[in-house]
Amino acid sequence: MRNIVLTIAYDGTNYHGWQCQPNGITVEQVVRQAVEKILDHQAKIYAAGRTDAGVHAQGQVVNFFTEKPIGLTNLARGLNSMLPEDIRVQRGFEADPSFHARYSARSKTYVYRVLNSLYDSPFYTRYAWHVPHILDVVKMDRVMTLVLGEHDFSAFKKKEEVYHSCVRNVITARVKRRGGLVYFVLEGTGFLRYMVRNIVGTIMLVGLEKITANDFSGILESRDRGQAGPTAPAKGLCLQRITY
Amino acid sequence: MRNIVLTIAYDGTNYHGWQCQPNGITVEQVVRQAVEKILDHQAKIYAAGRTDAGVHAQGQVVNFFTEKPIGLTNLARGLNSMLPEDIRVQRGFEADPSFHARYSARSKTYVYRVLNSLYDSPFYTRYAWHVPHILDVVKMDRVMTLVLGEHDFSAFKKKEEVYHSCVRNVITARVKRRGGLVYFVLEGTGFLRYMVRNIVGTIMLVGLEKITANDFSGILESRDRGQAGPTAPAKGLCLQRITY
């Protein structure tokens, strides 16, 4: 049995997230249909991260099993010829049978983009949250370091979501400005649903000087979702990279 | 009479170019409709560059006249609330009555993007020409300098187009790589129709080692459109900046 691994990039604008669900088309569904068509058998697709509706991916990683002897280049090219333009296979390789896109991952990196300019841009309207107010990015970057390490991130989870444990380990947490764009980079061993967008939404309140570093620290420690800021819009978020 | 100047960015994917024409919707048409609605009178819109179908603009400049006392911020905001997401006013200011977006321009800068990666990306599929072959960008940049200065660019014009003179003055001509993207930057006092895309299409032949620097030089001197390479796809081109 061959264990095929693909790196996939997608523009999530037109999809109801990664995972198959009854209402609306999902990226998983479109990818699975193409894979099953090219392999001519049913296939279960394992993905590293389940991105929410409207969230993008630069480096989603998936794996699936087949006995077909198709070459990796032909597989990638064939899939790209069948997939819509907003989903593209970027790389294909073969892994050990024990490799699992999700469980073998050592860390995931998300990048969140804010377009910090007076008016929105047609080139970023689908890929960044437009915020026309002055942001103290240096302070945001400093406060962002408070999420580094192991914490109970209950304050930043999706309200209705229930977890066995909300403790997660954040390895990288940065905010930087590059021209009109402000980038949030969060790398962790795992994330709660909405965690990145809720952290971004709350750090934005710091940048807008609506809350202080101490307030942010109190919110994190409170473990109370009600204390944190609003969820940043999905369109600014991108699953950038999975590390194995 | 007030002379209002706007900088406009647009994603040209869904438009039949800038200029009004009988078939298909144009950017000019959409902008003029919004301007006329907000001013409540007819307006002639003068634009710095007439971009072709599918070409983008980061810094298109337009001007029009009005006697209405509307503030520039309200005008820009009002227009953006009426315009579709793929057209955005970036800045508004008032100029001397003699200012003309096209005739007052000292130079125009176009940027052409090539995505030079094995597979296309969903984030660049509308903004870059995907070329999966190895490119000698250093050589392309060196050969590109041949177009600097005053030349008769007949070899790079649109076939059917007739001009009084095909002499144009190119001030900046560069090719550079930034990650997976190859950028062509061309600044000139004016350009023939398709000139940038035809230069790019021919410089690409240099990068692919299909023609030499000498061949390129011969093509430029031939003044014969039949000698040059193919026209690069519109989607990679962007009217970046107008200098006054």
Give an overview of the whole structure.
2 copies of one chain form a homodimer. Chain A folds into 2 domains: 2-95, Pseudouridine synthase I, catalytic domain, N-terminal subdomain (Alpha-Beta Plaits), CATH 3.30.70.580; 107-243, 2-Layer Sandwich (Alpha-Beta Plaits). The first copy, chain A, starts with a strand and ends with a strand. In chain A, strands 1, 2, 3, 4, 5, 6, 7, 8, 9 and 10 form a 10-stranded mixed sheet that branches. Helices cover 23% and strands 30% of the residues of chain A. In chain A, α1 packs across α2. Chain A is built from 5 helices and 10 strands; from the N terminus they run βαββαβββαβββααβ. By secondary structure, chain A is of the alpha+beta class. The longest helix of chain A is centred in the first third of the chain and has 13 residues, at 27-39. Chains A and B meet through β4 of A and β4 of B.
